[in-house]
Amino acid sequence: MNKNRVQVKIGGASYTIVTEDDPEYVENLAEQINNEIRSICNSNTSLSMTQAAVLVALDQADACKKASASSDNLRVQIKDYLEESARARMEVEVARREVERLNREISDLRNKLANR
Fold first, then answer.
1. What is the average per-residue pLDDT within 77-94?
2. In whole angstroms, how far apart are CA 26 and each of 17, 30, 61, 74, 107?
3. For 49-63, how does the pLDDT look when each residue is reduced to its tens digit (9 = 90+)?
């Protein structure tokens, strides 16, 4: 895959990012981080750029960990639903066979009654 060199500016500093990702994607990420740092700095002027960056990093790590836990939970739920669906399909198949057996039995009983 091609490596892209993307120039971004975060917190007043320029960074060159080498990535396989789309440059626009990386630029959007940098803009998001830059906006979050700016927002924190504006709301608390006593913070340094580094302190604001650490707070943004903590917030992003928290969001990532929560999203990962949420996706793990969804995987478990989907697995449970698939198992439940498989059990239901098996029950339907058993019921279908029983209906067929009972229909044959009814047909046999009707034939016996008709032949009397």
1. 98
2. 8, 6, 18, 28, 71
3. 999 999 999 999 999
Quick one: three-class SS letters along the chain?
CCCEEEEEEECCEEEEEEECCCHHHHHHHHHHHHHHHHHHHHHCCCCCHHHHHHHHHHHHHHHHHHHHHHHHHHHHHHHHHHHHHHHHHHHHHHHHHHHHHHHHHHHHHHHHHHCC
Angular region, 84: left φ>0, alpha ψ -120 to 50, beta rest: alpha
Model-wide pTM > 0.90: no
